[in-house]
Backbone:
């Protein structure tokens, strides 16, 4: 579980998060993330939840 909500993150969603193979919950909500969700995050096969509240994202969800 990784909760980074309300931490003033900005820019693109970090692709290095795909290097956390046992991650089952990733909360990046209520930040200033932009662009698209990196396709590398599709490697997180254990990820059961990815809250997307208040994002300014574009593109497809991998």
Residues:
């Amino acid at each position: 579980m990784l909760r980074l909500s309300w931490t003033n993150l900005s820019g693109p969603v970090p692709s290095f998060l795909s290097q956390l193979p046992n991650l089952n919950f990733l909360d990046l909500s209520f930040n200033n993330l932009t662009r698209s969700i990196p396709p590398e995050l599709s490697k997180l096969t254990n990820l059961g939840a990815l809250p997307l509240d208040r994002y300014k994202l574009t593109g497809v969800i991998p």
The chain has no helices and five strands. The chain has one domain: 2-57. The longest strand covers residues 32-35. Residues 2-57 form one domain.
